Amino acid sequence: MVLLLGGCFSFDDMLDGTWSGVLNDYYGNHNVVLVVNSNNTGWISFDNDPYNVDIVSRRANRSFVGEYGWYDSYWIERTIQAELINYGTLRIKIYDNFGDLISDGFLYK
Questions:
Q1: 5 φ, ψ to 5°?
Q2: Residue 68: which of 76, 58, 56, 78 has the closest Cα?
Q3: Residues pairing with 53 in the sheet
Q4: I need a surface site. Which of 52, 74, 81, 89 has the fewest CB within 10 A?
């Protein structure tokens, strides 16, 4: 009985893993890779320029909110809102320091 149940249910969060795709913003198109780990960390890369991501809010198998940033004479921070559309599709929205939407698109497993 245990073997049958083990094959039907997964305790892994479907958000975890590597997601990739192309996102558009006012600077152009970017090849994006997002890695989400089970310990609420990860990284995001825009055209091979990576940033560490801290996941600050998470609903398993549904959505998360993460933050990343960098220093360029002052701290610049971005907020990622991600929602699982289906097993292989993640919709992400990225907001700037002021809460303005700067990118909206889909990443795929």
A1: -65, -40
A2: 78
A3: 42
A4: 74
